[in-house]
Amino acid sequence: MSEFKSRRSPFPRRSAGFGDSRTGHVRARTVVKAAPVDAIAPVEATVVNSGVYRDGTRIASPSTLAEALSCLPDSQSMAWIGLYRPDDAQLYAAAQHFDLHELAVEDAIVAHQRPKLERYGETLFVVLRAARYRDETERVEFGELHVFCGPNFVLTVRHSESPDLTAVRTRMENDPDLLRLGTEAVLYAILDAVVDGYAPVVAGLQNDIDEIETEVFSGDPGVSRRIYELTREVIEFQRATRPLLGMLRGLSAGFDKYHTDEELQRYLRDVTDHATTVVEQADGFRQLLGNILTVNATLVSQNQNEEMRNLTHASYAQNEEIKKVSAWAAILFAPTLIGTVYGMNFDDIPELHWQLGYPFALSMMVLTCGSLYTIFKRRGWL
Prior knowledge:
The protein is of the alpha+beta class.
């Protein structure tokens, strides 16, 4: 594959602001290798919005990336390009125009990255995970957003419907004082939109947890599965939000080094406060779900013990009935046995021709039955 040609702005580059979230050092630049020319699809097919801004005002809406760069009148202007689900070749083409680092491009192609902040020369590469709560399915959907923030351009690559960057662009265009602060202000607005988008998710998860608590104490047998599924969503939400705190701390650490505007510093600290609140709420949700799962296990165990106790009582009662039936069967069997003996057709049976034989047989029957009744009664069978 052939190498990208270095395409740099004709204007002197100013710092993109903010420090590396990990080391604060600038990485050595590596030129991105381009895909074969015949494999490159038009990157403009994935452009959802593009604009060139100067002094907080939109001065052009270029149709191509090359036109966007050529429309920059001076170092105080910037281009803001939005891409939606570009394929590999299209992203390589965009990287060629904006002189992006190959490692950042590879991360953007692979996607499914954890939120992070990296500095490649004068360009910041930011990975964000947006989230939204779907009321109809009561599920949390996660999206991924990659932001390349250079000294005079912002390139966003969305892999999902959220966040809605159209609203972010509208907000910035309606606030020229903020937009004229440059690419750092655009990055702030994107971060703010992603963090604000977590609020409905937090509310939806809280509502789901309230419903689960009700189901647990109502004895719903399917609540264990729902607790497990909701716990997985909360864990995924933590993975999307917790790394933000490290990213924002990295940005804050670079305020002095990169001379970030004081007003923008206040805005970023506000985003940090909101992100901290979200992370704490997510941590609380996970702990609460763990407690609910423990309570549910305890209630299920209690119900099982109660069922076993009921079965034991039923078995005991059944045994008592069987003992009674067996006792009466034994009592009734004794006279039958005596009557059977004297009913045999033998001439030499003792007492057969005895005058008191009949009263004697009846007495034996009564005595045997009375004895068995007394024995069973003492043993509690009757």
